[in-house]
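Why show two proteins at once? Because comparison is the fastest way to build intuition. When a single record is shown, students tend to memorize it. When two are placed side by side, the eye starts asking what differs. So, the first record is below.
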Amino acid sequence: MTTEPLIITCAVVGAELTREVYPDLPKSPDEIAVAAEQAVAAGASVIHLHVRDEAGRPSQRVDIFAEVSDKIRRRCDCILQYSTGGAVGTPLSERCAPLQLRPEMATLSMGTMNFGPEIYENSEETITAIAAAIQANGCMAELEIFDLGMLESIDRLAVKKILPEEYHIDFVLGVPGGMAGTFRNLALLVDRLTVGRTWSVAALGRQQLPLTTHGIAMGGHVRVGLEDNIYYRKGELAQSNAQLVARLVRLSVELERPVATVAEARKILGLDDRLSF
């Protein structure tokens, strides 16, 4: 097993979750900033960022991203990773708009899929536009992979010069319409990766704990947070994002793999030679 420090990403709010389902969901800029600070204090080095508007609805408004980012940076040092996914149905121009704030990282979903009962649209035209916006603003792309076809499309799009040369991969498993959150599927995906490419795993619901544990042992990195899973164990809601992060830190220690500091995470991801805003 690798001894490379483990990068923990925390997805603190997401775009779909509501307070009817999780009463303590952070929604305001201050609440999101506090949740991020607590997650970083617990051991996260990357904050995967969605924001909400004044009514608590998912938003890609630049002013809200700017406010939340500033509040987080005032509280802690971390790698901010903006979501360009927005919510299902968010127009392309809105999905790209926050990138003008030049976060260190931004996500790029690699294909259209059924997202439960809805369609999450990521045509080649959409991927091309978001990839161009990510590169124009000096961000590192995290390619979000929901099934094997999305992973195999990377080489095809790279030949067309659509994708940046440097990127991180995040396997998001267990989404209805995507690959199931199983050990076999994770192993299949990792086996197809180019040697040396950094990757992480995120899994929904009850699969989050076993798959992130497996990811640690396989030498990858991990993502947890309320966006993906609101339960600490069966029937027991998580107290916070930080509680989910802290459990992974304990597991990593038991597996004798150190948890990355923010500086170490930047070095592993190749962000240490980029200008941070």
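Second record. Ask yourself what differs from the first in the token line.
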Amino acid sequence: MEDIKWLEVAVETTEADLEALTARLTMNGVTGLVIEDEADFKDFLEHNRQYWDYVDEDLLERMKGVCRIKFYVSDDADGQKQLQTWMAGIKKPYTTAVLGENDWAHSWQKYYKPMEVGERLYIVPEWMRDTPVPAGRTALYLNPGLTFGTGSHASTQLCLAGVERYTVPGAPVLDLGCGSGILSIAALRLGASRAVAVDIDPKAVGVAYENAALNGIGQDRYRALAGDILTDDGLAAELGETQYPLVLANIVADVIIPLSGKAGRFLKKGGTFLCSGIIDSRAGEVAAALARNGLTLLERWERKGWVALAARMD
């Protein structure tokens, strides 16, 4: 059976006209709308600053001056008729782009290829798991479609290199701000005995478990939890029942700084606190916080303006 073809219709507008245009399209029968608006984008960034230190300049540039509405119709005579009905009485300029049915879910896959990270890891998208693994490399299978960290970001690559260096074979690992679970799953693939992964986003729990399963890791060795150890004393106490030789935190400086004050609760004496997601201009602040909280800086790595730090609990 031939794939259905779809038209993505993008109607250009202004912030002042956005509400009226949305109402008119809805009245004309449009049932699903996608709104792309620079003002909303900037408002979202402003109210979620705690989750990042840096926003990609290319993304900011792409959103500059943008205010448009998108919707979809089938690319056939019926779709063209529906488009005319939906655009009746609307004088705004619009463009159309043809999408195949496969594009909806899978077109992004072409951007993900197997990738060597550090000296030992080989990150493989789950749909390419039959790809031969280079000699001396350990495969780490991930589903990039599950969002969160995929290993392509510089800060994640820095932290993965640290995981290679500081994972203690046969010992447990704690991953704070786990996202996709990539760091703790990598540690397990490199010989860690078990791992506990925590994230403030409940969706991360399912994602981490699914990525663990892709690597043949069951819940007897891997446990994922949703919560914030900075505010949830019960969760922090539960995690503190085990002393870990390696604690991971690939988050942002504003979270790592207060987290360093709690690291001693989870770290085994002589253990390593490995943190990343730090933009270079804030690395000094993080290093100072580590020192204040009894951690001795061991190593610093930098890549593309991002910094990772490894510190020892004395």
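One difference worth noting in the second protein: The chain is about 35% helix and 30% strand.
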